[in-house]
Specification:
This protein is mainly β and about 160 residues long. It folds into two domains: about 45 residues, no CATH class; about 100 residues, Immunoglobulins (Immunoglobulin-like, Sandwich), CATH 2.60.40.10. Strands 5-13-12-7-8-9 form a six-stranded mixed sheet, with no helix packed on it. A three-stranded antiparallel sheet has the order 6-11-10, with no helix packed on it. A two-stranded antiparallel ribbon has the order 1-2. A hairpin with a 4-residue loop joins strand 8 and strand 9. The protein is elongated, with a radius of gyration of 21 Å.
Length: about 160
């Protein structure tokens, strides 16, 4: 599929291209709140995953890996390689980057990537590339890791002191 000079092939029906069949549907004006909504129909971006620090996130390929598939997971603007499954030679490699140490799991049946015990350093765009015998497919995930609410500096201090009421 080609739109605006960008070529992109979805991995599956669930995983549409970054921009697909965008149609202007009209404008809705809500007089009670003075808001104007421009309505569009279509897919506008990455699959979004929002999680808390300490949680895990699984980035699903939505495919069943074929024997000779090459599956590459990358992170960030520099496309740092996070994980690779090379079906042709039967190998799997996980990043040795310290931020991922003992945190990565790669499903050898689907190629899905799980990142455990997340920190805010894991926030960002993860890119998936699946190269099969006849096709190359892509998928992107925008992962946002929020700080845990329990990390407040004064969590054990009383809210009010006697005499200040």
């Amino acid at each position: 599929m080609e739109e605006s000079g960008l070529a992109f092939k979805p991995v599956s029906e669930k995983s549409k291209p970054y921009i697909s069949n965008i149609k202007y549907l009209g404008t809705v004006i809500n007089n009670s709140k003075h808001l104007v909504y421009n309505c569009y129909n279509g897919v506008f971006g990455d699959e979004v995953k929002s999680v808390m620090e300490g949680d895990s996130v699984t980035l699903n390929t939505d495919v069943i890996k074929q024997r000779d598939d090459l599956i590459v997971w990358c992170y960030g603007p520099d496309d740092a390689v996070v994980a690779i499954i090379n079906g042709k030679v039967g190998s799997t490699k996980l990043s040795d980057d310290e931020r991922y140490k003992d945190r990565l799991e790669l499903n050898d049946q689907t190629g899905s990537l799980t990142i455990n015990n997340l920190t805010t350093n894991h926030s960002g765009v993860y890119k998936l590339k699946i190269s099969s015998n006849k096709t190359v497919s892509y998928k992107r995930f925008n992962v946002t890791v929020s700080e845990s609410i329990m990390k407040t500096p004064h969590a054990n201090e009383p809210l009010m002191e006697e005499g200040n009421i």
